[in-house]
Design brief:
- By secondary structure, the protein is of the alpha/beta class.
- The chain is built from 19 helices and 16 strands.
- The strands form five sheets. Strands 2-1-3-4-5 form a five-stranded parallel β-sheet, sandwiched between helices. It has a five-stranded parallel β-sheet with strand order 7-10-13-6-14. Strands 8-9 form a two-stranded antiparallel ribbon.
- Helix 1 (11-22) links the parallel strand 1 and strand 2 (27-31).
- Helix 6 crosses helix 7 (178-187).
- The longest helix has 32 residues, at 106-137.
Amino acid sequence: MHTILVVDDEPVLVDFVKEALSSEGYHIETALNGAQAIETARKIFPDIALLDYYLPDINGVEVLKKLRENDEGVQVLMLTGFNDVPTAFEAMRNGAADYILKPFDIGMLKLCIAKVAEKISLRNQIRLLSKETARRYGESEFILCPSPKMMKVYELAAQVAQTNDTTALILGESGSGKEHVAKFIHHSSARKSKPFVELNCAAIPENLLEAELFGYEPGAFTDARSKKIGLFEYADGGTLFLDEIGDMPLSTQAKILRAIETKTFRRVGGLRDLKSDVRIIAATNKDLALAIEEGKFREDLYYRLQVVPIEVPPLRERPEDVLQLADFFLTNFCQTMRKRLELSEEAYEALLGYHWKGNARELKNVMERAVIVAPNGEKIRPEHLALGVRRKRVEAPPPAPAFKEPLMKEEREPALEANFCLREYLENIERKLILEALQRTDGNQLRAAKLLGIERHVLRYQMKKLGIQVKGEHAE
């Protein structure tokens, strides 16, 4: 049962909301002003706060800040006046989960509360699953990255784990933690008691990859003197993680697709099909859509794998994780090398200021070197990290797509009139941009996506959301 704190200076509204939400099974506490809300929150630590912006004593955003100082996990829904867009934006910038316009429909309020409650439950589940995952394959091998971006990744991964055999495609830069997410899915699923088997497709020669995956029969080729069980067979009931799948040869891709769809495979040199119940999780740092265009990756396999695409953000975009991971690696290496070390404040600053092109894998290597060279019993200083001249460069923002002509003619700034709707205004601009990009590329979605500077799957999602349809040979 979730606890909700309702804060509004209108007693009639507070009582109405309390009665309505109590009937849904929530525990409701109330406050009629900001000071009372802050004091109540310190005592009960609510899961959700329904907070009016205009309070008689304190600005609602100031109350929001105090609530999040008390408990950064509290989900705050800000109540604002109709079309009070600047107020809503200010609340969102300061950590509000969402905003609700007054006057509101009680049914919509219940729906909004239910969505936030589901998010809280899922995050609590993630924390429990992460403890179970750490217990299963070692505390020294697992850490839950706390940044908001990674929490969204875990939320999606946990949803995949709840299914039995849904495939997932994990995308991200090299070293960003794709294997970490794949292990989280496996050890959080009903398959956790069965094997988690991983294979780097780029590390196995093409002529050996098929035998590694499916095994072989005696006499299948020279030196095949006995039967060999492949990874599909070994991972039966568990998870097969195919890393760097973008480097898999086309001939093997066809057999992987068949194995996923039929849950059967055939050993090299074998004459009969064998069954294997395996969940496939694939990962790549390559643009598979571009590989499809170049004829290097099967489109049917791509769509079969990316039932649930999960994108792991690079480490430089989640500074909250840098120090958490650094301390994690430091603890592990100190235990291994039997040293007692800690990071100095200057070292923390150096870690935060670095660009981390190699992501978490690079950070791990940096911390290993620091533990090796730093004198036992002292603090790790920036020189022990050896970041040196590789400190973060100030990079120019990525250039806008190079068009001979602008995609749209300059539009006048919108007037914030009484009936102005920011969402409709932005959707209208987005629709015009997408339609013009599709027109310039004769409906080719890959080229249109490049023109707009987004991935093709993002373009398709936006087209579906906005109801844009393209007819003709380039519709896919």
